[in-house]
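Our consortium's second objective concerns turning raw sequence data into structural hypotheses that experimental partners can test. To show how far this objective has progressed, the report includes one record in full. It was chosen at random from the queue rather than selected for favorable results. The single chain below, 109 residues long, was entered without modification.
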Amino acid sequence: MKKFTVKVKIDRAIGYKDKFGTVYPVNYGFVEGVIAGDGEEQDVYIISKEINEELVVFEGEVVAVIYRKDDIEDKWVATKIGEKLSRKEIKKSVEFLEQYFDSEIKMLE
């Protein structure tokens, strides 16, 4: 699968705290009109070495897919166009949520 660009609407900005007390260290949102396995819009982690502030909207490039083996949906990982992320950097950035799932990161070409 090749990298592709997306526009993400952020609904959980950096610092967001969910009902379980989990604080989001990255921006997290969804792609309007793209339906995921759970019947909701496709979720996207925004990971960048250059983005440290809360976002409302993000336009960037999907560079990886996180396949959850024990869930009905997968997550996309987006970053700034042209920015390089390693699997290790992605894993560290999403561990706050993915620690609860049996997931595998697939890098896109």
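The partners drew two points from this record. The first helix runs from residue 87 to 98. The two ends are 6 Å apart (CA to CA). Both points have been shared with the crystallography group to help prioritize constructs.
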